[in-house]
Amino acid sequence: SLKELSLEFRDGYFSIQESLLKYSTLEMTVIFHLPDGLHEVNLTGIITWCKRFKKKDKSCLHLGIRLYELNEENREILKDYLYLGIGDKNLIWNLWDNQ
Predict the structure, then answer these.
(1) Is the alpha carbon torsion for 69, 75, 78, 79 positive or negative?
(2) What's the pTM value of the predicted model, to 2 decimals?
(3) CA–CA separation, 39 vs 34, rounded Å?
(4) Which pick of 20, 45, 78, 97 has the fewest CB atoms within 10 Å?
């Protein structure tokens, strides 16, 4: 959404201790480069929740991030993405996964 972001990390790519998240305020910035090669979205916010789970044979961590106010350009790019149909979103993620 325009106010919150949920991210999934596999331990092989990113490692963080959940105990650190419970007792501290961590800020996170995520930069997305869209497959069109023209747009980049910078999202910054506070991690508000986390949940560890197993996915097949991998250990994963979900992070919930409450976003700070977006600038107008990032808001429009993100809004355009959120209004895409599911087929278009799957195409974008398939392009990302194949890189």
Answers:
(1) positive
(2) 0.67
(3) 6
(4) 97
Q: Tokens 């977006």 correspond to what residue?
A: 70
- Which tokens belong to 2? 């325009």
Question: Which amino acid, residue 48?
Answer: T
Q: Is the dihedral of CA 40, 46, 52, 53 positive or negative?
A: negative
Residues 65-93 pLDDT 10s: 999 988 898 888 878 777 765 555 455 45
Measure Cα distances from 84 to 16, 20, 59, 81, 93 in Å.
Answer: 32, 36, 30, 5, 12
Q: How far apart are CA 57 and CA 88, in angstroms?
A: 29
- For 36, 71, 83, the CA distances from 9, given in Å and listed in that order, are 24, 26, 25
